[in-house]
Fold this protein.
Amino acid sequence: MPLVSFAPPPLCLSFLSHLLPSLPPPVRDVDVPPLLRRRFILSGYRPPGLPLRCYILSLLQIHNQTLNVWSHLLAAVCITLRFTMFAVLRGGGILGFRLQGPEGQGFSLDAASLPLVLYVFSAVMYLSFSAAAHLFQSHSEQLHDWFIFLDSVGVAVFQYGCALALSVYSADAAWTQSMLGKVFLPGSALLAWLSFAACCYAKLHFHRLDPLNRKFVQLVPTSAGLLLVIGPLTQRLTAQQWSPAVMLHLLQVALFLLSFFFFSCPVPECFAPGRYDIIGHAHQLSHILSALGTLVQQEALFHDFLWRRPTLIRRFGEQRLLLVCSRTVWSRRV
């Protein structure tokens, strides 16, 4: 039996009963199919087979996916609002377009700011897809698989969007001209889609057979992609030049590594099954840390963007910037 009570506070009962009249209470793990269970999570599951509106209303219900949904949903809203504020305060051209003509009539594409725009879109995409996956995955096994695949697409697109922004705004010129710098973006694109394919294969092939093998197949390409994405920051993080941007990059790397650890290991629930069903299990910690890491990374990229923007076209060339950005747009359509 769980070691803590997961009932809402007494003062909230009457309010929730009026607001959520059609929602059944969460159930235990034995009441849902094996595919919809998590190891060491014994309760707090939403019953499968309910109408889709029930899972939408479960945004306001207490269950074992509540924090998973809200952490990434709120992070997507915060990233959008923060970027909008940054765009308004910093003036024209920050949104990928700029005014042109003697009287400021017409628009032209601003290649220097386009990677930042695509990064923000990819971040909002992965956070929104993740929130949707955790909101609807309890409906059925088929919908569970479909939304997990959608979540994997969002992660793959964000992985490339992150690599694009870091290589353009955050990498030193010496690193960009190195062998690793020259193959960085094609390698990031390849690893992003290998990660997506591995997650889909593991989910389909191993979900009823061996969860350890499934986790291994998922983690190998994901960890390789994570290490590659850190590549553009290595020289700046080891140069001991502690600017605000470097401090933010160091913090976001630490947050992403911690998120990866909790994604990989069922800690702390493996030590006390049932105690952390609603609050505190590993996947929730991974979600919160990844959301914080993305917010910190966006702030670091804002600093780097303002620092590097005047010289970007001269350094990379407009055609090259548009080419690497088009890969992100194409991957979203796929």
About this structure: The chain has a mean pLDDT of 83. The first strand starts at residue 97 and ends at 99.
